[in-house]
Batch of 3 targets.
Target 1
Amino acid sequence: MTHRIGRHEAIGPALLRLAAEDLAAARLALAGGAPSDRTIHRVRQRLKRTRSVLRVLRPALDGRAERCAEKLRAAARLLSQSRDADVAAESARQFTSTAHGDDAGFGRVVVFLDREARAHQPTSVERVTRLIADSEQQLARASKSVAGTALLGRAIDHAYRRGLAARRRAEFSLTTPDLHQWRKAVKDLWHLLRLARKRLPRRSASLMAEFERLSELLGLDHDHAVLAEKLAIAPTDDPSLMEQLGLIARRRRALEAEAFILGAALYRQKPKTFRKRMALG
């Protein structure tokens, strides 16, 4: 079965099934030894999706959801260093591919960051695997009679409200942490809508695509922020540094401007109206 709640599937057991499937797939992906960057990225995606599902189930799992989520946060932290360098390297590649004649030194940056990503390959794969397995065992003991419809509806409503408040903060402050918090709220809502798409009104499909686009814009902005931070603290005397930071800043402003326009359209509804539009069937 694909990664979504079936049209006629009970929502509570379906959420537990989806979490179990993602955890098992993440654990098996790490079983082959030294994971590639692609594998690490996919595992981290699965852990994020599971934590999103755990937030929905938290009221029904008597503390088990929070204990599992903490283990998964610890696992993600162990995988994060090489992933951050890889993200920054991919961001730098975007600047080399769009440069006309002169890449402003981003070619050197890519080489440096690729080397850093390889150097930070996680040495604690066994520890990560153990944390994931512990979470699997915890969830396997959870009751399968969770009444998930109300929990999922409440979670979608909360994610929308959180994104609405985060957009206002980000638009006011324009700081990287606030933009990142907005991105997380948008991505959480998009994931919940995607899980429930077979149980949502047909009109939700186009809305879901727009939330996905907003998540991508904010994700690119964050990737560029990571790149700028790495360049700013790198112990080098690269004469192109200020030019590089200027190019990154301009690209971020363009991404943020597009994100705020789209965000204003997506969050123009009152939460009560959005909740009615996204009522689960």
Target 2
Amino acid sequence: MKPRALIDFLGTIEKLKCNTRHSFTSTGRHESVAEHCWRLSVMALLVADEFPDVDISKVVKMCLIHDFGEAITGDVPSFLKTEKDEAAEDLAIAELLKLLPPKTGEEFRGLFSEMAEHTTSEAKLFKALDNLEAIISHNEAPIETWIPHEYTSNLTYGTENVAYSEYLKALKEEIRQDSLAKIESASDITSL
């Protein structure tokens, strides 16, 4: 990739560091899209041994690029995202990928297609981890940042995407227990 094209592309996706998500960090500030992608990638690396038949390198690539469109569109929480939002993000991704060298652009287009089709082992693992990382983030954030919807959605979000794996179901259950404990703890405090 030519140096100027690389710098320009990085400048565009730099917005992922600026654009925030609905999630908050443990210190109570909004999480950036880039922070989510980074930790999701680390998560994929850490579960690699549980999925010996999965190309973890490909999963990490999916984790790193899956929110590229949000550099242009910003983040829309999954529970608010419409078909119009999805189409805008898809268009943003298509435009961004045109800025890359043909080989890289083609590889990334293939990964986005694979994620959308959600049929390969890699795409399934990526999607499950994406859901689970979001819930972990919510559990780490102060409960004052939760909206009413999260008291129930944190318990069920991603259930369908982990159903294919005993490991992911066990991980989801641990995260669910953390959500329940956080809700219970908040209930105890508010009842005083």
Target 3
Amino acid sequence: MKDFIIVNEKDNVATALRDLKKGEKIANIKLQEDIASGHKFALKDIKKDKAVVKYAEVIASASCDISAGEWVHIHNTSGIRGRGDKE
């Protein structure tokens, strides 16, 4: 079984398919923290306010700098879909 899924070469995050542990080398990066199955981790550094891309679609923007191997979730992203306060 694969440990993670990347759907498109444009993706800058991958989704864990099992619980991953800090320090593991996954997708040629060293994980910076534990990643629970079903959660995302950064494949490369994502600067604040830049797009978070999954399945070749922008799903959020980074609310702070995110380093490769970090967990990507609501604590470091900002939703951009369906928001009336952003154009």
